[in-house]
Design brief:
Keywords: Disulfide bond, Glycoprotein, Repeat, Secreted, Signal. InterPro entries: ECM_Assembly_Org, LCCL, LCCL_sf, VWF_A, vWFA_dom_sf. By secondary structure, the chain is an alpha/beta fold. About 30% of the residues lie in helices and about 15% in strands. Helix 6 crosses helix 11 (about 495-500). The longest helix has 30 residues, at about 1-30. The protein is flat. The protein starts with a helix and ends with a helix.
């Protein structure tokens, strides 16, 4: 009996043990974290569009595209495409993949560069930024399985309403203080990102239902113009010439001290960014950089689409002076002049298209190229434009137009020359030379109409006294500048200006380094290269080619492969689109053999460059990995004498003396050397830059 009792106790104990073990196992299963679901985002999604302060997302394949803009290199502005920024940083490639995005405060400067096939652009400052890294969860951070996006419509927040976002949104009380002055912003530093980062894009507006709070809100709204004036005075105080200019210039019969009806959102407002349009009023400075959401407003024309004047097919932007110095009366004269220009040009889909950007402290698009397609509607729209006020920051306006106006989405037609006409009352309050140079290099023809030059007492305050001479280096004959003694005589230059902007044969600046060349690649296919390295070499060729504007009338691409023998892979007239060229490069098959570089240069001269168009610059880019079996100096000299600009790129065992002999003068700017094929990509940007620098140094009158 004793033994039976002992056995029963042991069995009972064992049963309890198994039960406890099973229960613990089930509890562990329940507490085990669910598998993280990673949401996919589209290639064009901007970081500012997503509200979450930190998230993991998956980028689809095929995002590497120039139309998805990237601003910055190490830290990116929220205006950037998230996926393209990740490709640029090297976190993922064009096949896509998971990325971790962390929002951080904005910077006072973003450095642009070319990396991993994506060109990022520089940016002066931005209110919100983000970092990208590998898509691995950080310890202790919960990531959303569904991303929250800011609304594409903005609604005014009324007293008594409380908006509380779901998920990981971070709340912050609405700030009624004005935006910090540029001096304050420049001192901003980037904090180290943590999981508690308070991000502008996640901020919400909180109001109370108490009458006292409502009265406070109303009082704050009334004082906003005053706040703007204080900010404007603080900004002007940074420049003696700017402040003196506004004191010295007076408009007879007009008092223009009225406040600017501008609502500046605080740095902690919701992330409505570039997608927001509805609630912003004319004259609003949405971003510190001058980007404006107005570009996305495209009202339907009231009149039928006009064909326009077919003898004047240009894409035209007028930079309208909205500074306080011009005064109300002269601003009305300027609007009348622009209306007369619209009528005289004959606006239409087959003729000239016209948009207007108004500038003061910051530029903003009043309407773009495709907003109005007939002169009547355009004139009516011009009449409704309200004056922005502020300084005359022409340089900032030119930079804005260069980066944002002439885009396909805004009606740019590609085949039509891009023309900018800058209206200036007196002189600019910032520097314009560098902005003008960059605009010209982008193919923009810049005309200046200057009215009422600086008075004798004001000349000491002018930043660039001879700014017109500096910015019109494309043509020095006076073709691109018109000086008018008074706003009251502005109507007299309507017809002369129409004649000039429509004279497409004389718009020399519309030819750029990217759209006016025949580029022939001479590719080493010898045995020493090898199959894998040959594919890398072709990728280098493709990366260079895709930076150019390719068509029958723009840049054309051809290619020759050589060993002991030579083979024409495709001629200049074979492919007329960028995609066709890139596909043709991809299809080139590796040949293998010896290295007769001299014979290859002669072959390229005969088979490619002898058939180049007279108005095209002939550019040869030769890539080789070894010393040639034959002489290269004589064939290279013959090519140079026939107008071929030669660039040589040597890899591994290439001979430096031969690279210099092949290259055009000066050799140090036309020859490059890398130790291995995998490092070729480092010279894509430098090579293109040298091509453009050389192009822009040549007279084109």
């Amino acid at each position: 009996a004793l033994l039976t009792m002992k056995a029963t106790v042991i069995a009972t104990f064992f049963g309890v043990f198994l039960t406890c073990a099973y229960t613990a196992k089930e509890a562990t299963k329940k507490t085990k974290k669910a598998k993280l679901y990673v949401p996919q985002i589209d290639c064009d999604v901007k970081a500012g569009k997503i509200i979450n302060p930190e998230f993991i997302a998956k980028c689809p394949p095929g995002c590497q595209d120039v139309k998805y803009r990237v601003y910055g290199t190490d830290i990116y502005a929220s205006f950037s495409s998230v996926c393209n920024a990740a490709i640029h940083s090297g976190i993922i490639d064009n096949t896509g993949g998971k990325i971790l995005v962390q929002k951080v405060s904005g910077h006072s400067g973003y450095r642009g560069s070319f990396s991993n096939g994506v060109r990022s652009l520089s940016l002066p400052r931005w209110r919100e930024s983000f970092l990208v890294s590998e898509g691995k969860p950080r310890k202790g951070v919960t990531y959303p399985s569904t991303l929250e996006y800011s609304s594409s419509k903005s609604t005014a927040v009324k007293s008594g309403n409380v908006h509380v976002p779901t998920g990981n949104a971070v709340r912050k009380e609405h700030q009624t203080t004005p935006v910090p002055t540029p001096a304050t912003q420049m001192a901003t530093t980037t904090p180290t990102p943590t999981t508690t980062t308070t991000d502008p894009s996640t901020t919400v507006l909180l109001t109370t239902t108490t009458p006292a709070a409502a009265r406070t809100t109303a009082a704050a709204a009334k004082t906003r113009p005053g706040l703007h004036r204080v900010r404007d005075m603080a900004f002007r105080g940074t420049s003696t010439s700017a402040s003196n200019r506004n004191i010295l210039r007076h408009d007879t019969g007009d008092q223009h001290q009225e406040s600017v009806a501008t609502f500046q959102r605080a740095a902690g407002s919701p992330a409505h960014l570039a997608m927001e349009t509805d609630s912003w009023k004319p004259g609003l400075s949405l971003f510190d950089t001058g980007f404006s959401s107005k570009e996305e407003l495209n009202p339907k024309p009231l009149e039928p689409i006009s064909q326009g004047n077919p003898n004047c097919k240009v894409d035209l932007s007028f930079l309208m002076d909205g500074s306080w110095s011009i005064g109300k009366r002269r601003f009305q004269l300027q609007k009348r002049f622009l209306g007369n220009m619209a009528q005289a040009l004959g606006i239409g889909s087959a003729g000239p298209l016209m948009g207007i950007v108004q500038y003061g402290d910051e530029p903003s698009t009043e309407f773009n190229l495709k907003t109005y397609t007939n002169s009547k509607d355009l004139r009516n729209a011009i009449e409704k434009i309200q004056q922005k006020g502020g300084l005359s920051n022409v340089g900032k306006a030119l930079s804005f137009v260069n980066k944002n106006f002439f885009l396909d989405a805004n009606g740019n037609r590609g085949g039509a020359p891009n023309v900018v006409v800058v209206m200036v009352d007196g002189w600019p309050t910032d520097r314009v030379e560098e902005a003008s140079r960059l605009a010209r290099e982008s193919g923009i023809n810049i005309f200046f109409v200057t009215v009422e030059a600086a008075a004798q007492s004001e000349k000491q305050n002018v930043i660039e006294p001879n700014f017109v001479d500096k910015v019109l280096m494309c043509r020095t004959s006076g073709f691109y500048s018109i000086n008018v003694p008074s706003w009251f005589s502005l109507h007299k230059v309507v017809q002369p200006l129409v004649k000039r902007v429509c004279d497409t044969d004389r718009l020399a600046c519309s030819k750029t380094c990217l759209n006016s060349a025949d580029i022939g690649f001479v590719i080493d296919g010898s045995s020493s290269v090898g199959t894998g390295n040959f594919r890398t070499l072709l990728q280098f060729v493709a990366n260079i080619s895709k930076e150019f504007e390719i068509s029958d009338t723009d840049t054309r691409i051809g290619a020759v492969q050589y060993t002991y023998e030579q083979r024409l892979e495709f001629s200049f007239d074979k492919h007329s689109t960028k995609q066709d060229v890139l596909n043709a490069i991809k299809r080139i098959s590796y040949w293998s053999g010896g290295t007769s570089t001299g014979a290859a240069i002669s072959y390229a001269s005969e088979q490619l460059f002898s058939k180049s168009k007279p108005n095209k610059r002939k550019i040869m880019i030769l890539i080789t990995d070894g010393r040639s079996y034959d002489d290269v100096s004589v064939p290279a000299m013959a090519a140079h004498q026939n107008g071929v600009i030669a660039y040589s790129v040597g890899v591994a065992w290439a001979a430096p003396d031969e690279l210099e002999a092949i290259a055009s003068d000066p050799a140090k700017e036309h020859s490059f050397f890398v130790d291995e094929f995998d490092n070729l990509y480092r010279y894509v940007n430098q090579l293109i830059q040298n091509i453009c620098t050389e192009f822009n140094s040549q007279p084109r009158n």
